[in-house]
Design goal:
β10 and β11 form a beta hairpin. With 240 residues, this protein is mainly beta. 4% of the residues lie in helices and 42% in strands.
């Protein structure tokens, strides 16, 4: 396994794919743009000196399921595996305040410590988006993205990154728009590839895109930063 550039991308679809006239395929990729405007923020990231914040965005719902060997959010229940990780919002007159609320943000004391903070109401009814607080270190992060308003369709992404600098890191999923679409029925029917950008304090540091070609189908490949993120490099890949 290449620890410098490692990404794993798998797709799990439990519902049957729907087909309509003209060979158009209805998939969750077509929902991502809508999901960007569907979220209702209920809090904000509160950075602390000496810490790293990790969050995700871009689809109806997303959740950090694992950091290193520690399970964070259970994908079957969408709840924290260890409730002690949760940074709770205070109660005011018996009602939990959820908008720009002060929290118990005690600094982390060990390298392995993980705290999870409620960030936003998910566009998927009844769920919450969280962000994770960790100390700077090289870490393996697993995130589940839900491009549709459907818990049965999940895109699983994993990467190893050296979070050496403190600050906020965001894994943002989006649909890559093609500049070379010929308009053929085959290209029209195929979904645009899904990409994930790693942003550090809103600056893109790395980019990964799912490959749809026959040779690399189901694989997630990192784009080359040396060429303005326009090209795709050829690191060792892990198949879905």
């Amino acid at each position: 396994m290449n620890k410098k550039r490692y990404a794993l991308w798998t797709s799990t679809i439990f519902a049957a794919t729907l087909l309509v006239s003209g060979c158009q395929v209805l998939t969750g990729y077509q929902k991502i743009d809508e999901a960007e405007n569907a979220k209702s923020l209920v809090g904000s990231i509160q950075p602390l000196d000496g810490e790293v914040n990790i969050t995700c965005a871009g689809t109806y719902h997303c959740e950090i399921v694992q950091i290193d060997k520690t399970l964070v959010i259970a994908p079957d229940t969408h709840e924290l595996v260890n409730p002690n990780m949760l940074v709770t919002l205070p109660n005011h007159d018996g009602v939990k305040k959820t908008v720009n609320a002060p929290m118990d943000m005690a600094p982390l004391t060990t390298k392995d410590a993980i705290k999870v903070v409620p960030l936003s109401a998910s566009a998927m009814l009844g769920l919450t988006n969280y962000y994770a607080r960790v100390m700077p270190a090289k870490r393996e992060v697993h995130v589940n993205f839900y491009p549709e308003n459907n818990e049965g369709y999940v895109e699983r992404f994993a990467m190893i990154h050296d979070f050496v600098k403190t600050g906020t890191y965001k894994l943002r999923a989006y649909q890559k728009k093609s500049d070379t679409n010929s308009g053929s029925l085959l290209e029209t029917a195929s979904p645009e590839p899904l990409c994930v950008d790693l942003l550090q304090d809103n600056q893109v540091q790395r980019r990964f895109c799912k490959q749809l070609d026959t040779e690399h189908q189901g694989e997630f490949v990192e784009a080359s930063m040396r060429q303005g993120l326009s090209a795709v490099s050829n690191p060792k890949k892990v198949k879905a």
